[in-house]
């Protein structure tokens, strides 16, 4: 026997736009992101990070192989500004053409916001990158803190994960898509360390800043995508109930005794 909990009985009080989880998780991202970003910044400003950062750079320069460099170049290219813009345009166009305009606006807005914040912090801090003798490849700008690749890839794939979680995909599909969206910024950030184009604390700051911004995106998604998910779920529940009613009526008609006609 399967226990069914009617959608409307529970979500009438805690629908997707009002469910506590939809608010709690983004707030945790924002608060934790702010605290960790300030801690990382203080770690750098006091000079406490200098020893670790330089040790990682020299270690990577001595240990990296041709294969590591090739893979790192690939993920660095994926996380570049040009690639990010292309991915956002293609994804937003796909959302728009499939009548998911809200998702398109959310994705574009999240990336524009993260790009602006990253640019402002970079030009305020002016932290120099590791020495060119350690670097592999060219860099987009001379400033190192925070890693723009790490920030924007975290926001891009994190926003896609949020959109997926509010989608009509199955639970298994949502899990696999979310795992992929978590791994991509991780690999992009690590590629910056392997290529010595950033200090380790720059990459950490990029991930953390991206998580903070995803908290804001998550709150926006709660109000923009939550009601859409509720309507879709209610429609499915209504269709399911109508299907059960139709089956019940058909079953009753089959069980109704037939009256034989008499001919005189």
TrEMBL record:
Keywords: Membrane, Transmembrane, Transmembrane helix. InterPro entries: PAP2/HPO (IPR000326), PAP2/HPO_sf (IPR036938). The keyword Hydrolase does not apply. Signal peptide: none annotated. Residues 105-218 form the Phosphatidic acid phosphatase type 2/haloperoxidase domain. The chain crosses the membrane at residues 27-50, 70-97, 104-121, 151-169, 176-195, 207-225. It holds the Pfam family PAP2. Residues 253-264 have a biased composition (Basic residues). It comes from the Bacteria. Residues 235-264 are annotated as: Disordered. PANTHER family: AT30094P, SPHINGOSINE-1-PHOSPHATE PHOSPHOHYDROLASE. This is PAP2 family protein.
């Amino acid at each position: 026997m399967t226990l069914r909990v009617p959608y409307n009985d529970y979500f009438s009080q805690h629908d997707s736009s009002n469910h506590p989880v939809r608010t709690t998780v983004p707030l945790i991202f924002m608060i934790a992101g702010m605290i960790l970003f300030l801690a990382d910044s203080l770690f750098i400003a006091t000079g406490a990070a200098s020893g670790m950062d330089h040790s990682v750079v020299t270690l990577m320069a001595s240990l990296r192989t041709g294969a590591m460099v090739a893979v790192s170049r690939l993920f660095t290219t994926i996380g570049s500004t040009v690639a990010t813009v292309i991915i956002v345009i293609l994804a937003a166009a796909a959302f728009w053409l499939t009548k998911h305009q809200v998702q398109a606006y959310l994705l574009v807005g999240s990336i524009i916001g993260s790009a602006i914040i990253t640019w402002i912090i970079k030009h305020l801090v002016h932290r120099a990158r590791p020495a060119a003798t350690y670097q592999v490849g060219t860099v987009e700008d001379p400033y190192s803190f925070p890693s723009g690749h790490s920030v924007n890839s975290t926001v891009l794939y994190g926003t896609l994960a949020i959109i997926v979680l509010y989608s009509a995909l199955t639970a298994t599909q949502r899990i696999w898509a979310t795992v992929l969206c978590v791994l991509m910024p991780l690999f992009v950030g690590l590629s910056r360390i392997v290529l010595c184009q950033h200090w380790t604390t720059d990459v950490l700051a990029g991930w953390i800043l991206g998580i903070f911004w995803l908290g804001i995106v998550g709150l926006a998604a709660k109000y923009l995508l939550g009601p859409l998910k509720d309507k879709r779920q209610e429609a499915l529940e209504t269709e399911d109930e109508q299907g059960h009613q139709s089956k019940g009526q058909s079953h009753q008609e089959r069980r109704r005794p037939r009256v034989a006609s008499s001919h005189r």
